[in-house]
Amino acid sequence: MGRKRKRSDEQLDGVLVLDKPSGPTSAACLNDIKRELKQFKIGHAGTLDPMARGVLLVMLGQATKLASYLTEGLKTYTGTLRLGISTDTLDIQGKILQECEVAASPADVEREILHWKELTEQEVPAYSAAKHEGKPLYALARAGEDVPVKTKPIVISHVEVLDVNMPEASFRVSCSAGTYIRSLVHSLGIRMGCGAALTSLNRERSEPFGLDMAHPLADVLSQPSSLADKVIPLADTLPHWPRFVLTDALTGLVKNGAWLPVGDEPGEVLAGTVGDRAMLLDPDGRPLALVEAKLQDNRPKWAILRGLWEQD
What we know:
By secondary structure, this protein is of the alpha+beta class. The chain has three domains: 14-73 and 208-234, Pseudouridine synthase; 75-205, Pseudouridine synthase, CATH 3.30.2350.10; 243-307, Archaeosine Trna-guanine Transglycosylase, Chain: A, domain 4. It is built from eight helices and 21 strands. The strands form five sheets. Strands 1, 2, 3, 4, 11, 12, 13, 14, 15 and 16 form a ten-stranded mixed β-sheet that branches. Strands 17-19-20-21-18 form a five-stranded mixed β-sheet. The longest helix has 12 residues, at 26-37.
C-alpha cells in the first residue's frame, strides 16, 4: 500500500470559483494550482473543453468530498455557432469534414435553436472524456479506432437566441449536468442539412455559483497570498442546502453513523420532509456531514450521505 500524503500546511478546504480561460484543459488549470499553490488535494466539478471558458468549480481539500453534489447542478452557457461547416470534434478546433452553402434564413436558425428545449437525449461526441470499457472516447478517436455511439438523457430548461448574423448565431442555454453544447450545435446542423460547429463557449453559471464570484486563473496564480480570501469556506459551499448546527451529543451520534430523527415543525433544528438534503455542522460551526431525509422503519430520519469531519 502507498503511504498517505501528508497534508501540506498551505492546503485549504473549500471551493474556488475559477474563471477558466480558453485554451488550457480543465486538468491543466488544476495542475497549475496544485503545483504552484501547493493544493495537493484538488478536484473540479464539471469539465470544460479546452476551447471553453468560464465557471469551473475547483474543490480543495475536504471539499473534494462534495464532487457529486456540485457536479449535478444546472449549467448555463452562452455560445456561438457557425452554419455550413462540420468537424470531427463538433467545434471549430476540429478537422473540417465538410463545408456547405447555407440556404436557411435567420428565422430558420432561430427556430432550430429554440428546438433544443424539446430534446430529451443527445449523442455523446466521439472526442469527449466519456468512457467505453475504461478508455476515454477521445483516446479511441485519436487512435483511429471505432468509437461506439453513445447517447445520454438531457434536460434543457431554458434557451434564448441572442443574435443571428448569418452564417453565425449566438445563444444562451441552461441545461442539466453533462450536456454537450457541441452536440446541440451538431444536431442543429443535421436538422438544417448544412452542418454546424461550435465556435465559442462561455459557462456563465454552474449552480450554485456564477461568473460574478469567479476569479481569473492568472490572478489566482499570481496572488498566492490571497488564495484563502478567494476560497468559499466548506460550510458555505452548498448555500442552497439547509444547515443545522448540532449539539455535542448529536455530533457524537453522527460520527458514530447514527441516523437522526427528522423534525416535523418548520423552523426547528433538523426539520424537513423525506427527500430533503441538508448539511450538518458541529457546535463550532464546522461541517460535519451531508444528510438526506429517508424513511427508516416508516419514520423519517436524516441518513448520512457523506461525512465531512476531519478524521482523528
